[in-house]
Write a structure and sequence with these properties.
Strand content: under 5%
Number of strands: 4
Radius of gyration: 20 Å
Largest sheet: 2 strands, antiparallel
Oligomer: single chain
Length: about 325
């Protein structure tokens, strides 16, 4: 139990983070793409595609954070103390985005301002998440399991790169979501944006991968030590094939679901590569999941609650997306 409970919780937290990135990522992408709307009515249409389901997506963020606190309190304390400022920026931006989403539909004269707030909140939330990702991948200065890097230890050229990369990645999810959910002029704009976004995201993934050997997080070493590369190599190969299929599907009329599904798979493959590189560390470069784990009794107790809660979240998510499936008309209203 002392070995397998931390492994199970690592999988649960990873699954929660992945679900948040996939589901809330396209909503943040809609905000990032808001400046490309030709008028207020078109932005209404963009936001209405996500209006019934956007707030439920953040349940996964809560699950990931609460799971980290319950199962790996040492890692939670380390990450929060190291990344306090980026996490605070993310939370403020998410609140800002949520308020703007609701208020914009009620405003009259201030509608453009709330539209701008929706765009800025989405951009800053995505950028902050990229900063957090970059800081974790780069590795944190730890001494006897405690963070010693200072308030701005997360700030580096690499974390800035990953911050911008996540913004463009979420924009890609947003554009492919619009291809799936809209028709006519808005779908044409989304298709036009998707192809260059695919190229930009591939370029960022290449830059990040080329930078990894120069970091002290040991992620690249994990890929090449002990012959690991041969059984891990399908992940980058599949990612490249996925990018090619996404590039082709983006401009094919009548295949509206394929670009979004392929974009989700692209993110999932990137996330899988990250987790495989991090394993078994939960805080690179040296804090393993077993070192950071809470007592088995605590992990087992919370796992019982999770066994009840997780199916409920999955069921609600499936139900909401099922009910609101299909195209969203330009004159659909949000109340």
């Amino acid at each position: 139990m002392e070995y397998w409970l931390p492994v199970a919780w690592f999988g649960v937290i990873g699954f929660g983070v992945l679900m948040y990135v996939l589901l809330d990522g396209f909503v943040l992408g809609l905000g990032i793409l808001a400046p490309f709307a030709e008028d207020e009515h078109q932005l209404d249409h963009m936001m209405n595609t996500a209006a019934p389901i956007w707030d439920g997506n953040e349940t996964w963020l809560v699950l990931g954070g609460a799971g980290l606190l319950a199962a790996f309190p040492k890692a939670y304390a380390t990450v929060l103390s190291a990344l306090y400022l980026p996490v605070l920026l993310m939370l403020i931006a998410l609140v800002f985005r949520g308020v703007a989403f609701e208020f914009r539909f009620k405003a009259v004269r201030g509608k453009p301002w709330w539209g701008a707030a929706f765009a800025l909140g989405s951009m800053f939330a995505a950028f902050a998440q990229g900063l957090i990702l970059g800081a974790l991948v780069e590795g944190m200065p730890l001494q006897e399991g405690k963070y010693v890097g200072g308030a701005f230890g997360w700030f580096s050229p690499f974390s800035m790169l990953t911050g911008v990369a996540v913004v463009f990645g979420y924009a890609l999810l947003g554009s492919t979501w619009l291809i799936l959910k809209t028709e006519g002029r808005l779908q044409l704009i989304a298709r036009t944006l998707t192809r260059p976004l695919v190229l930009v995201v591939i370029a960022f993934m290449g830059l990040v991968s080329a930078w990894l050997p120069f970091l002290d997080s040991r992620i690249m070493a994990r890929w090449f030590e002990g012959g690991n590369f041969w059984w891990l190599s399908p992940v980058p190969v599949l990612a490249l094939l996925n990018a090619w299929w996404l590039w082709r599907a983006a401009m094919r009329e009548g295949r509206d679901a394929a670009p979004f599904i392929l974009a989700l798979c692209f993110f999932a493959l990137g996330f899988a590569g990250l987790v495989l590189g991090l394993w078994p560390n939960i805080v690179p470069p040296s804090m393993t999941i077993w070192e950071a784990a809470s007592p088995p009794s605590s992990q087992g107790f919370v796992m019982v609650g999770l066994a009840i809660l997780l199916p409920a979240i999955l069921g609600y998510t499936y139900w909401s997306y099922s009910v609101f499936r299909g195209k969203v008309a330009a004159d659909a209203g949000y109340h």
